[in-house]
Specification:
Layout lengths: L7 H15 L5 E2 L2 E2 L11 H11 L7 H10 L2 E5 L6 H15 L6 E6 L2 H15 L7 E5 L2 E3 L6 E5 H7 L9 E6 L7 H16 L4 E6 L5 H6 L5 E3 L7 E4 L7 H15 L4 E6 L2 H15 L9 E6 L18 E7 L12 E6 L2 E8 L4 E8 L2 H8 L7 E4 L21 H12 L13 H13 L11 H6 L6 H12 L3 H12 L12 H9 L7 H16 L6 H7 L4 H20 L12 H15 L3 E4 L6 E3 L5 E4 L17 E8 L5 E7 L2 H7 L2 H6 L4 H12 L1 H7 L21
Parallel strand pairs: 3-9, 3-10, 4-7, 4-8, 5-7, 8-9, 11-18, 12-14, 12-15, 13-14, 15-18, 21-23
Antiparallel strand pairs: 1-2, 5-6, 16-17, 19-20, 19-22, 20-21, 22-23
Helix pairs in contact: 1-2, 1-3, 3-4, 4-5, 6-7, 12-13, 15-16, 15-21, 16-18, 16-20
């Protein structure tokens, strides 16, 4: 048993003490106020008000059992829906555990899947603990950290904790690590769970707590043998009404149900689970139009889009509610985001979800509409409690998979392999995956890293690979950024990297405004392609940001651009620039627009994205991709997408993204020359390309135009001498 813990009796006494205190405005002993053990200040009356609410949560019935197991066991699994209070209460109890041993083994960290959920929980828990956010309780999400040296409980996204492991492989800052939403089986969560098994062997004092929404499946339980499981008594599920709608008709059925509920005048907000972001936006537009025809005595109907991974629109508890009926339009995996909505009384569940399934053979995602798991279906029903109603838009006998399929089996794992290679340097030689990645996907990831010169001859990280792993970017983009140091175009390439990493800056307006939006976007168009157009947009955004009499928000609205996406890109750009300076790589002065700069940007892009090159084979916009011989068209939103072949489409292009099953389009496209491709692509990659007419053309240029190619080859930039030796080989020879 850990030092300072006296077992179950101590925690029973503590519960009894707090129960007694919860009935008072302020607890006093003579003239002494009870002090908060975390900041040393007297508790406020609000603390006891919230304590009453907390003790009514189902999780509190398991408090003594949990604290006893935390003191005696290294791994614990706790299952219970979001309404049980698992995500807010258990991390607080872990902080009490660490406090009882004077933080000898470190503080508490609790991972989350969603950024907004991370922030919401940290704010709620700081309020419940009666401390200041950013001090004793903090949070870390991409591009935003709110912590200090006094932080004892930190909420963070799972990918942020992985990034932290690059500097602290054994996570020695933490005495308790709480992995929340383990049932989501994201790539980052699965990697964490695999590495923590090895870390726990080397740190017997470490405690690991896994939180899941429902009873963990046999796969997760089998991964941790003899681990204690605490099953929380959840809120009873809502009354389920199965409509038997076919998968093709769920969208119209969901909207029809929303309007019927509103006309029935039954109280309560509604959450609608659809499959895709396009459906969410379309449903919002339709409901806004229908709202204009609703009689005033029925009240206002307010549709709210809640896109996965974005959040930011959900109210916190305590806000004034009930003045209108809110309809939250969302999709998987957002089930846990609605813990703060007390007026939620209806759930409409389409029963399907959109999954991006990565195909390593063509290096592209296929979009698949799949049924949700039984875990997700049950979580959605429990959002509204026993007094609400859950409408399931599928037959009751629909066979739903028992568990959520792990994302690591359906994702491009090149970034994950790069990270694990970095961890190998840190002393963590293997990752004990719950479900091992697909061997074909693993081989493709290793092959890609080898092409990018991130691996040495022994399969370990090269010096370039180590630097690439420092950037929170896809490996291809990280290599592009490194190559830009050699070609003296860092200022421009870091803008491209930020704009492509952030959400799309282009707003998709309603159908009647799309022509106007296209005309506005044309003003930023660059003749060399979409990558350069993104630089134009960012420069215009920054210029208007510094204009004293210009509203950036209105400027974005006028040009149909997303202000939040541009602000995110600006923050990402600052972060990337800070990393470049930290590892002492040069940041060039702006020179966008010059002929030499344009050529250097293309070379830097090809250094990372030489595997994503296509050729127009028939001069009609059918682009043949050299790597896997598929043919696709340029996306209509591209600068080239609106052109007809008569206006002159580029023959050779570099593209950033290829979507296979959704629309068979290549996105973010820029013009290149075959000579530039030959110069930048590794020879062994070129020779491994499958036979094709396009490869023959390149081979012809290589064989017969060698002297011409050498004459065209531009000497290395004079600034190369100022670059550390490790980056001198960033251009693939």
């Amino acid at each position: 048993m850990a030092q300072g813990i006296t077992g179950e009796k101590y925690w029973e006494d503590r519960v009894a003490f707090e129960t007694e205190g919860a009935g008072k405005e302020v607890v006093e002993y003579g003239d002494v106020l009870e002090l908060n053990r975390f900041d040393g200040l007297p508790y406020s009356s609000r603390y006891y008000t919230l304590l009453k609410e907390r003790m009514d949560l189902p999780v509190w019935k398991a408090r003594c059992d949990f604290m006893d197991k935390l003191a005696n066991r290294q791994f614990i699994i706790v299952s219970g829906t979001a309404r049980t209070g698992r995500s807010s209460q258990i991390p607080q109890w872990c902080a009490e555990f660490c406090l009882s041993v004077q933080y000898q083994n470190g503080m508490v960290v609790c991972t989350q899947v969603h950024r907004q959920h991370t922030v919401d929980l940290a704010l709620r828990v700081a309020d419940e603990m009666d401390v200041n956010i950013g001090h004793e309780v903090g949070y870390s999400i991409p591009l935003e950290t709110c912590c200090s040296g006094d932080t004892v409980l930190r909420y963070c996204t799972d990918d942020m904790l992985l990034r932290e492991m690059m500097s602290d492989p054994m996570l020695e800052h933490y005495g308790v690590i709480v992995i929340d939403q383990a049932h989501e089986r994201t790539v980052s969560t699965d990697v964490l769970l695999g590495l923590l098994k090895d870390i726990a062997l080397q740190r017997p004092e470490l405690r690991v707590v896994l939180l899941t929404a429902t009873h963990p499946g046999p796969t997760l339980l089998g991964h941790y043998r003899n681990v204690p499981l605490i099953q929380l008594e959840g809120v009873c599920s809502a009354e389920a009404v199965y409509t038997g709608t076919s998968h093709k008709d769920y969208f119209c059925s969901a909207l029809r149900l929303v309007l019927e509920i509103h006309h029935s005048q039954e109280e309560g907000d509604i959450v609608v689970f659809l499959a895709t972001t396009q459906e969410i936006d379309l449903a919002r537009d339709i409901l806004l139009r229908e709202e204009a025809n609703i009689p005033p005595h029925l009240g206002e109907l307010l549709p709210i889009s809640v896109h996965p991974g974005l959040g930011g629109t959900l109210p916190m508890p305590g806000e004034e509610e009930g003045r209108c009926r809110r309809v939250f339009l969302t999709s998987s995996p957002n089930e846990d985001l609605f813990w703060a909505v007390h007026m939620l009384n209806f759930v409409i569940d389409a029963g399907v979800q959109k999954r991006n399934v990565y195909n390593p053979r063509i290096r592209a995602n296929s979009v698949a509409i799949q049924p949700i798991s039984r875990i997700q279906a049950e979580s959605r029903k429990q959002l509204v409690g026993p007094t609400g109603k859950s409408f399931c838009l599928y037959p009751e006998d629909t066979p739903l998979p028992s568990e959520t399929r792990p994302h690591i089996l359906e994702s491009d794992i090149t970034s994950t392999v790069l990270f694990l290679k970095r961890m190998d340097i840190g002393g963590l030689g293997r990752c004990d995956f719950i479900d091992r990645p697909d061997p074909e996907g693993l081989m493709q990831a290793l092959e890609e890293l080898d092409y990018l010169a991130a691996l040495d001859d022994d399969g370990n990280l090269s010096e370039i690979g180590i630097i690439m792993s420092e950037f929170p970017l896809e490996p291809q983009m990280a290599k592009t950024l490194l190559a830009s140091c050699e070609f003296d175009c860092v200022n421009e390439v870091v803008t491209i990297a930020a704009m492509l990493t952030a959400p799309s800056c282009f707003l998709v307006p309603s159908r009647e405004l799309r022509l106007e939006a296209s005309q506005c976007h044309l003003k930023f168009q660059h003749p060399e392609g979409d990558h350069f157009t993104l630089i134009n947009i960012y420069k215009a955004f920054k210029q208007n940001q510094h204009e004293p009499f210009v509203s950036v928000e209105k400027w974005c609205q006028d040009y149909f651009l997303s202000l939040s996406a541009l602000q995110t890109a600006d923050a990402i750009r600052s972060e990337l620039t800070d990393i470049l300076r930290r590892i002492e790589l040069p940041v060039s002065m702006p020179s966008f627009g010059s002929k030499g700069n344009t050529l250097n940007i293309k070379r830097a892009l090809l250094a990372g994205f030489f595997m994503q090159v296509a050729r127009d084979v028939d001069s009609s916009g059918n682009y043949f991709m050299l790597t896997h011989k598929h043919v696709a068209q340029i996306h209509p939103f591209s600068a080239y997408g609106t052109k007809t072949p008569k206006l002159g489409l580029p023959e050779w292009v570099l593209f950033h993204q290829y979507s296979f099953s959704e629309d068979n389009c290549i996105r973010t496209v820029s013009h290149i020359s075959p000579e530039e491709f030959i110069q930048m692509a590794p020879q062994y990659f070129f020779f491994n390309l499958p036979p094709s007419e396009s490869k023959d053309i390149l081979q012809n240029i290589l064989d017969n135009g060698a002297e011409h190619y050498k004459a065209k080859k531009i000497q290395k930039s004079p600034s190369l001498e100022s670059i550390p030796e490790v980056t001198a080989s960033c251009v693939i020879q």
